[in-house]
Amino acid sequence: MNQTSEALAIVRVAHAIAESIRELGQVPSSHLYARLMGIMDLHQYEQVIDLLIDAQLVERDRSHLLHWIGPKANPQPNRAS
């Protein structure tokens, strides 16, 4: 896999995780990671969560509950009539 393919895969995984958190509204981080541990290690998972926190899409409270704080839904691109 080349660097471009790897970068695209990371973006897709981050998007899928973000969408999962958005749809749930909030989720314990450990529960989310339990679902993902077969496809990524803990370090990779934490990197994605930190990325979402830095992007101000997700907040993590002291108990590691992840809260979606981003837009309520994915905006649809404007379509010319």
Q: What is the H-and-E element order?
A: HEHHEE
Distance between the termini: 40 Å
Helix content: 40-55%
Uncertain segments are: none
Count of DSSP strands: 3
* Beta-strand fraction estimate: 5-15%
* Average predicted local confidence, pLDDT: 90
* Biggest beta-sheet profile: 3 strands, antiparallel
> How are the strands of the biggest sheet laid out side by side?
1-3-2
User: Pairing-aware structural class of the strands and helices?
Assistant: alpha+beta
Cα shape? globular
Radius of gyration: 14 Å
Number of helical regions: 3
Labels describing this entry:
81 residues, globular, alpha+beta
Write the layout of secondary structure elements.
Elements: H1 3-24, E1 26-28, H2 29-36, H3 42-54, E2 58-60, E3 65-68
Antiparallel strand pairs: 1-3, 2-3
Summed up:
The protein has 81 residues and is of the alpha+beta class.
Give a description of the structure.
The chain is α+β, with helices and mostly antiparallel strands and 81 residues long. The protein is 53% helix and 12% strand. It contains three helices and three strands. The protein has helices at 3-24, 29-36, 42-54; strands at 26-28, 58-60, 65-68. It has a three-stranded antiparallel β-sheet. β2 (58-60) and β3 (65-68) form a beta hairpin. α1 (3-24) packs across α3 (42-54). The protein is globular. The N and C termini lie far apart (40 Å). The mean pLDDT is 90.
